[in-house]
Design a protein that fits this description.
single chain, 527 residues, alpha+beta, six-stranded mixed beta sheet
Length: 527
């Protein structure tokens, strides 16, 4: 195991995004098409589930602009109310010899129901009534959502109309004052009034939300092209590990431990919605040849590989040796100046088999370290890949990459600072009314921050950036002090909506705005 200098986390994030952007530029935008069916019965006949079809679109990124039809929505004049449609341009609707107590009489000629392709015509014929009704202006009965056929151009709600049936002919009376105030398109949704013709209902690069599902349905869109989700393989390593939830016949010997990293990282990555995670199982770390084969196969199958364990400086820590010496991977950094997660190593490779670039994150075996480093490094990487926005250069892509939302929060208890490294302290956030009567965001530690103590991630809304302590000067972060907190996605539902920010606007990254070659921890990469 070789020695690597410790790299500050902000620089490490920039390096990860730099390599991610370079990989995306080389590969080009990867897309896939998801079909949408609006015919529930057809889907049932095909044995598919319409809820699963729609759910699969949520959170995905549109690869193209999607427009409404040339008519927009609705594609026809639609009634807003149950009532009677009339033609306001018909002179007979305003001047008639047949008055009834200051009302105008209309003959209800037809009926149109929502969803009906044709009108329901009167069937009873009475010669005297025909002669009488020919003297009256015409109307049609319509239900809410029904098509308003020409020449009708206004609807009068049923509650404003008196109805009389004469020999199976319906006659309605409408007050003159109602007719006088009636305007064209009253109680009608004109063609394209809700969604303008040819308007964009889903923008390229936009994340698909539930409202988009509804808009796509209204516009009759049958398929959506989205950016492909990167494939992520997760491999746990260590002779001491055993898998929980297997056949129940596992012989749990003293000194063995259940593998928490596989389940927790698969779940965490699934919650992001930005990748397709796959657990690759548990690999022993005492068989270099077998480990090499597993890693080579995994790299060929996935865009991103995550390993946990075997990356420190012990005799059994051979992950780096296998990746570098046996598989030709390039190290971009090998240690982080942070607590927890110091041994985290970031590599990339292009295997001869297909010449496609892959990214590898080799992380410590302690579950808290693995989760924190996934949040800090892998989440921004996957977000960039999922968004699929390929810019003119690596630098522009990194500058405009989305990273963690950041807030400032005030500590409600003192916290002992680590004397060797900055700490990303797990905190629970909340609002209180301060002495000035203002709303203030406060932070409570989740308790003992030991990297093996997964309980410290429970209820954690984010990572508070605490500085390295100075003996005799600043050994603690005191009550009332404020520090930057990088929010996890869990926090969004607990303390409000905080969208991710761009790299160029980050307090966390500070002045580490990317200029390729800035890091000094690897060779410069040309744009």
């Amino acid at each position: 195991m070789s020695y690597h200098p410790m790299v500050p986390v902000p620089q490490a994030i920039i390096r990860v995004l730099t390599e991610t952007a370079a990989m995306m530029i080389k590969r080009g935008t990867q897309t896939e098409t998801i079909l949408i069916s609006h015919q529930h019965h057809h889907q049932q006949q095909q044995g598919s589930n319409p809820e699963q079809e729609q759910q699969s679109l949520l959170g995905r990124i549109s690869a193209v602009n999607i427009r409404a039809s040339e008519l927009g929505y609705p594609p026809y004049n639609a009634s807003i109310m149950d009532g009677y449609a009339i033609d306001t341009d018909d002179d007979m609707a305003h001047v008639s010899d047949d008055h009834y107590e200051d009302c105008q009489l209309f003959h209800v000629k037809d009926r149109v129901y929502a969803g009906a392709a044709t009108q329901a015509h009167e069937t009873y014929v009475d010669i005297d009534m025909v002669e009488y009704t020919n003297l009256l202006p015409k109307s049609i009965y319509v239900t809410t959502g029904a098509v308003i056929p020409a020449p009708y151009n206004a609807v009068i709600p049923m509650e404003e109309v008196d109805e009389t049936d004469v020999k199976e002919h319906r006659i309605i009376s409408i007050p003159h004052h109602t007719l006088a105030s009636l305007k064209r398109n009253s109680w009608i949704r004109p063609i394209g009034c809700d969604i303008k013709p040819d308007s964009i209902i889903l923008k390229k690069g936009e994340r698909i939300e539930p409202v988009h599902i509804g808009l796509l349905a209204q516009c009759g869109i049958e398929k959506v092209e989205v950016t492909s989700l990167p494939s992520v393989g997760i491999l746990s390593t260590g002779n001491e590990l055993y898998s929980v939830g297997g056949d129940g016949n596992v012989d749990v010997a003293l000194g063995t431990i259940p593998d928490a990293n596989g389940p927790v990282l698969c779940s965490l990555l699934s919650s992001y919605g930005s990748c397709r995670p796959k657990f690759l199982g548990i690999a022993r770390d005492d068989d270099e040849d077998a480990l090499t084969t597993i890693l080579r196969d995994s790299i060929l199958e996935h865009d991103v590989i995550i390993t946990t364990g075997g990356i420190s400086m012990g005799e059994m820590d051979i992950i780096e040796e296998v990746l570098v010496n046996n598989l030709g991977c390039k190290i971009h950094f090998g240690r982080l100046n942070m607590k927890p997660g110091k041994p985290t190593t970031f590599l990339s490779t292009e295997l001869v088999a297909d010449s496609k670039m892959r990214l590898i994150f080799a992380m410590p075996g302690n579950p808290v370290s693995a989760m924190v480093c996934t949040e800090l490094l892998i989440r921004p990487c996957l977000d960039m890949m999922h968004l699929g926005a390929i810019g003119e250069s690596v630098t522009s892509m990194v500058n405009n990459a989305q990273i963690h939302a950041e807030v400032s929060a005030t500590l409600r208890q003192s916290v002992q600072l680590d004397m060797s490294r900055p700490e990303y302290h797990r905190v629970k956030l909340g609002y209180v009314i301060n002495k000035l009567g203002h709303l203030e965001l406060v932070a409570d530690s989740t308790g003992v921050q030991r990297s093996s103590r997964l309980m410290s991630m429970l209820d954690a809304d984010g990572l508070m950036m605490l500085p390295q302590g100075v003996k005799g000067d600043t050994p603690r972060a005191e009550v009332g002090e404020s520090f930057t907190v990088l929010l996890s996605r869990r926090a969004f539902g607990n303390i409000g909506t905080f969208r991710g920010i761009l790299v160029k606007d980050s307090m966390h990254l500070g002045r580490c705005i990317p200029t390729i070659g800035l890091l000094g921890i690897g060779e410069s990469r040309a744009d």
